[in-house]
Write a structure and sequence with these properties.
With 121 residues, this protein is of the alpha+beta class. Strands 1-2-3-5-4 form a five-stranded antiparallel sheet, covered by helices on one side. It is 22% helix and 19% strand. The protein is built from three helices and five strands. It binds guanosine-5'-monophosphate (5GP) and zinc ion. Guanosine-5'-monophosphate is lined by residues 14, 25, 37-41, 49, 94, 100-103. The site of zinc ion has 6 residues, from helix 2.
């Protein structure tokens, strides 16, 4: 089903603006439900953000009808990682300010191109 981003967007949200193409970004993947684009301030040689077109503030706000979309975010990360030739990569969702979330439109970080340590900071 086609998602009507104008109906489901949040006017004040920068990621809604990117999804609705009201703000420029170099979109690297798009389907009816999600878009992916490079992070403005990358923390790894490859750093993409994968977001639902429909506004949702955070993972903590997801409910059962959103769970298929959540799977699609991860599936898109896998597609992008393969497209970019990454064998090792990290996916991150920060939920809430205390966990490092700074943009309140759900997004999955896809990071690659350098070693990553565990535990994260
Ligand atoms: P968070 O800290 O919420 O997990 O991640 C938000 C990410 O969004 C940060 O890595 C930040 O660099 C990125 N970001 C913030 N504003 C913009 C923007 O306008 N365009 C893009 N492409 N990325 C952004
Ligand atoms: Zn939004």
């Amino acid at each position: 089903m086609e998602v009507d981003v104008n109906q489901s967007g949040n006017e004040a949200c920068i990621f809604c603006k990117i999804a609705q193409k009201q703000m420029p970004s170099n979109i690297v993947y798009e389907d009816e439900e999600v878009v992916a684009f490079p992070d403005l301030k990358p923390i790894a040689p490859l750093h993409f953000l994968i977001i639902p077109k429909r506004h949702l503030s955070s993972l903590a706000d997801a409910t059962e009808p959103d769970y298929a979309m959540l799977g699609r975010l991860l599936g898109t990360a896998n597609i992008l990682a393969k497209t970019k030739g990454l064998t090792d990569f990290r996916t991150v969702i920060n939920s809430g300010p205390g966990a490092g979330q700074s943009v309140f439109h759900l997004h999955l970080h896809l990071l690659g191109g350098r070693p990553f340590h565990w535990p994260p900071g």
